[in-house]
Design a protein that fits this description.
The protein is mostly helical. It has one domain. It is 56% helix and 11% strand.
Length: 143
Amino acid sequence: MKIRKKTSQKEGKKGRAERAAKSEKRKSTGIIVFYLLLAIAIILLLKYSYSQYQKKSLNDDANTVLNAVTTNALKIVNSDKVDEDMVHQAAQKGYEQLKSELGIKNDFCIHFEDKDGNIVKIDGLEPGIGSEKVKVGGRPCGQ
């Protein structure tokens, strides 16, 4: 034998209204979570894209400096030998002028190493030409 509790129509409508409100609340929470995840995905994608752009920019600038050192732009290295006069001329131009002439966006340092990786100092010059923001051997470029 089952005993049923009689509910009035008013109480039945109230229950349906509460269930509908809960359902709407779940839907709106789901929408908020969806847009939050979408925003996070977009931010991560933009961050990845920017880092790839930045890497390409650094590689392009490195190649520009390397080409300038071995070609007519600076011609510091000639057939595996360093032209000290050209190094002095480049150092006299100064970092900002070199950066502008070469069209470089990023900081750089031109320094010389021997076959064992030791930094070689050219007579009368600091051991590098470039930005002090760049560290060579744990020390700022040119110091």
